[in-house]
Amino acid sequence: MFTLFGADRSGSAAIEMALTLCGADYRLVGASSWEEGAGQDELTRLNPLMQVPTLVIPGDGVLTESAAILIHLGLEFPLSGLLSQDAFERAQQLRALAYITTSCYASIGMIDYPERWLPDADADQLDRLVAGARSKLHSQWEVFSHVFYNPVAWHPQAPGAVEMLASVVSQWSGAREHLERSRPEFSASLGRIDRHSVIKAVLQRHGW
Question: pTM of the predicted model, to two decimals?
């Protein structure tokens, strides 16, 4: 049994999708740094950074970082389709997962918590930082489309780890609206992924 700590409209949605696709038994615990309660206390004990998603795997090992969790599940459930069994294709999938978590997540962190980067800034300075980070995020998704929207790395007809993480993370900070204007074919592909039965059910539960 897996235990997933997460919150609505957070990155834990991608892990819910992956666990469901794998057919894994899991328990979902509502917890985050911004929600008080028993789940928060348990999450703090397991992960002092209070990150979501945090996944407790059988044997009580603790996994954090969305890409690491998805890669672990892909390796643990090789027939799930989370990761390709072809080495060349899988290499591009790992590259795409790393890109989303290192590039897009970094900009989103600035958008959501600008005061962490400019603790002594006034409101105008924080607004400018948020605007710059949002513009950067949107350009990062354009780069993602340019690099990974191809038959090797991208499979909307059979979504795996990359498509699930992209489906969730692109929901934030106006990225979908920007891509609809700037990269309509890629935007339509994201929409196709959203309609996959497993992904659709989780997105709806999260209010997307």
Answer: 0.95
